[in-house]
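Subject: Sanity check before I submit

Could someone independently write out the structure tokens for this chain? I want to compare against mine line by line before I put it in a report. The sequence has 214 residues.
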Amino acid sequence: MKALLVLILCASLAGNFYQYQKAKDGRRPESSTIGAPIVMRTRGGLLEVSAISATEQFEATDAHSFLRIHLGSTVGQIKVPAVYRYHIELAPEWKIRFRNKTFVVIAPAVQPTLPVAIDTKGIRQQSTGIWSVVTGSAVLDKILHSISPGLNAKAATPAYIRLQREAARSTVKEFVAKWLITQAQWKAYSAYPIQVYFADEPIQVLRTEDSPVD
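---
Independent answer below. Compare away.
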């Protein structure tokens, strides 16, 4: 039994070394477009308001056994540099009130731009465990398939929405300030301060108070 395990281990090491050398000596991979590119219009347009840069870590463990005897585990780990971008839609109605010499703007809720962008050049992956030379590739492959869904889910979490909110608020404030000076009826008021809220914030009282500009 031990001799068989040693033989498998040596064969795996030899195979991995061959693949490493083959990749090292090969040409740089080339890309090509399969089929005609499809161009899709963003109806109404989007305003990008913020971004979060973070290195995310994904892990998975594969336990090995034979005849109910635990033979160790393979642990895979992948670190991914990710950029979460957020936007608001321009098509929905934006509510603007003028209260106490201040413009109060209620903008649509911020949404994550999906899929989350990743920098493949910065990806770092490793597998550990006595059987990693045999099963490490499969574990890492399983992790790779979970990265995009995992990042997309994290982008929409309340924690990340809160993290980017103030940056988004500043962007919308700048956008509204530039827009106001183009409106003839509000041009005279464009020097007044602007307060920005998002539709998913607890601002119910502001929704019902309508004080238009005179």
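---
OP: Matches mine. For the report I'm noting this point. Residues 3-9, 11-20, 208-214 have pLDDT under 50 and may be disordered.
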